[in-house]
Structures are given as structure tokens and as C-alpha cells.
UniProtKB/TrEMBL annotation:
InterPro entries: DUF883_C (IPR043605). Residues 79-105 form the DUF883 domain. This is DUF883 domain-containing protein. Keywords: Membrane, Transmembrane, Transmembrane helix. The keyword Membrane applies. Residues 1-25, 48-68 are annotated as: Disordered. Pfam families: DUF883_C (PF19029). It comes from the Bacteria. The chain crosses the membrane at residues 88-105.
Length: 107
């Protein structure tokens, strides 16, 4: 019989040279290792693609956010300018809007 100090490959043979290991098990283990290696490569590639897409999405989101912020600032600036140039009209618009909101809330 094989001693415990021998390697796995040596353990599969007896002292007289007869094979004691299970070739089906060894083939199955080798196939499983190959499948896991292939799967690991595919997962790594997929993770890389997902990280790239997330990074692009974040950049796009930041750009859109800056565009919207610029539009809001422009709108607020133009509204302030209009209010400075037409104070009576602005007061009339605010009064009318207040009446409309009050009527809507009463119902």
C-alpha cells in the first residue's frame, strides 16, 4: 500500500504498480476545474464591462446634472431680470397666481 508521505499521484498506485485511483473521478475533477476556470474568465470580463458601463453612466449623469443646473440658473436669472425691469407686472402676476392657488385649495 502507499504511504501517507507520498503525493496524490503516487497514492493512486500500489507497491506492485496496480492502479487504485478512480479515473472517472480524476477526469470529473479535471473537467470541473476547466469549467470553473472558463467561468471565472467570463465573470471577470462581464464584471469589467459592467464597471465600464457604470462609469459611463455616472459620467453621463454628472453631465446631465450640470446641464440642468445651468438651465435652472439661467431661468432664475432671467426671471430676476424680468422682475427688476417690470416690478408692477411681477406683483400683478404674483397676486393672480395667489388667487388661483387660493381658489384651488378651497375646493
Amino acid at each position: 500500500m502507499a504511504t501517507s508521505s507520498k503525493s496524490t499521484a503516487e497514492k493512486s498506485t500500489t507497491e506492485n504498480g496496480a492502479e487504485t485511483g478512480a479515473p472517472f473521478t480524476e477526469k470529473t475533477v479535471a473537467a470541473a476545474h476547466e469549467a470553473i476556470d472558463r467561468l471565472s474568465e467570463r465573470v471577470a470580463k462581464t464584471e469589467e464591462r459592467l464597471r465600464g458601463a457604470a462609469n459611463q453612466g455616472q459620467q453621463s449623469w454628472t453631465e446631465k446634472q450640470e446641464e440642468v443646473r445651468a438651465q435652472v440658473e439661467g431661468s432664475v436669472s432671467s426671471a430676476r431680470d424680468y422682475a427688476r425691469e417690470n416690478p408692477l407686472m411681477t406683483a400683478g402676476i404674483a397676486f393672480a397666481a395667489g388667487l388661483i392657488v387660493a381658489n384651488l385649495l378651497r375646493r
